[in-house]
Amino acid sequence: MEDLSHYDNGQPSGFSFNDSMICLKHLALFHIWNWNNPIPKGGAKLWNIGGYWTGDKEANKNDIRKAWDLTVQNFHNELQISELSKNFGSVLESRLNDITFAFNNLQPRTIIHGDYKIANIFINRNSTENQIYAIDWQWCGIGHAAMDVAAFIATSIHENTIENSLELVRFSYKILIDNGISYSWEQFWQAYQICWIE
């Protein structure tokens, strides 16, 4: 394996908007290869649902309300949590089966990285195309492209880029469409929102 230690991975502060676009472009091009036909090549074994937090791999779904209550307790002032939002953990917990059902049935499917985040992405700035190297494929599996997009935006962008999250989602979608994928924005946006919650 090539030594990637001299490439930039955006840590510790997160990828800039432009670097995020580079990462998302390469991610979308990867998703296109198996769009609506996520059959592993050469006998490769993949998770039925890609991602370390999904399906049978998810160990802490029962702790959602407790985790939210602790967040409210410990970060109430910093996060400016409204009175209405204080019960969000209970609401989320009560809807968990519906959310999981929607998530598990998102269509179309492709092969996803499953852990596409800043610690696993390196940018080679010496190449003319700013080549991306993605590592840590242990959670690679079948899923909706929006799963990787949501995970990347949630974990890997610089705080100054958060306000441009919708633009990054639209950019990811545009790469798919510009490369021949027929899929409505409304469907992609709804899938992204479900993946964000999941």
Automatic annotation (TrEMBL):
Organism listed in the record: Rotaria sordida
Signal peptide per UniProt: none
Domain of life: Eukaryota
Protein name according to UniProt: Aminoglycoside phosphotransferase domain-containing protein
InterPro entries given in the database record: EcKL, Kinase-like_dom_sf
Pfam short name (any one): EcKL
